[in-house]
Design a protein that fits this description.
51% helix, alpha/beta, Rossmann fold, 10 helices, 202 residues
């Protein structure tokens, strides 16, 4: 079936994975184990429902400090994370090329309340339509139904969507709902796969 829509994750695909790298930097600065801190932090944002917009950022950092013993203020911790979401210019160029070729280009992300702030630092959201952000729709990519929502928002069938994400679980859930998928690992591999997909499903 023809490919009509390409949908991208934000952190780890359109931009560097700032949350992971920010947590790594925080752990190293305060003498914590980086991998344990990263794993705990990812669990925390989901367990506290921050990604769904049901927990304030202040509450999130309070929980984080309680779990780690770190005493730094919110502003310091959040900047260590947000500054590491570095948008990849070559990705934005690819998005423009896909749009020029007539594809719907969407974003599906669990970025919650940080997405618009990051867009204010280096605009990118204007290139994506629709944008489904967990903090606004109250649903994350851990819920397979979000991929049905994506199909409805784009107006195409699930099998007409190519979904790009850097998380194995998200890719597995998208594929189970009928979407075509690419697991992002690195630029070289991704560029090879996206070229193949676009050429195959024309």
């Amino acid at each position: 079936m023809a490919l009509k829509c390409v949908t991208f994750d934000f952190g780890g695909v359109i931009a560097e994975e700032g949350f992971r790298e920010g947590m790594r930097a925080i752990a190293l600065r305060f003498g914590l184990d980086p991998e344990k801190t990263i794993d705990m932090a990812f669990r925390l944002v989901f367990d506290a429902k921050f990604v769904e917009g049901l927990c304030t950022e202040k509450d999130l950092w309070d929980l984080f400090r309680d779990r780690t013993g770190i005493t730094s203020e919110d502003a310091t911790l959040r900047e260590m994370v947000l500054s590491r979401f570095i948008v990849r210019p070559w990705m934005l160029e690819l998005v423009r090329t896909l749009k020029d070729r007539g594809y719907i280009v969407a974003m599906l992300t669990d970025q919650a309340g940080w997405l618009k702030e990051l867009d204010g630092r280096n605009p990118f959201l204007h290139l994506f339509d629709p944008v489904l952000n967990s903090g606004e729709i109250g649903k994350t990519k851990k819920d397979p139904a979000v991929f049905t929502d994506l199909a409805a928002a784009t107006g195409v069938k699930p099998e007409e969507i190519l979904f790009v994400d850097d998380n194995d679980g998200n890719i597995e859930r998208a594929a189970s709902m009928g979407l075509k998928t690419i697991l992002y690992r690195d630029r070289e591999g991704f560029e090879r796969e996206i070229r193949g997909a676009v050429n195959r499903y024309v």
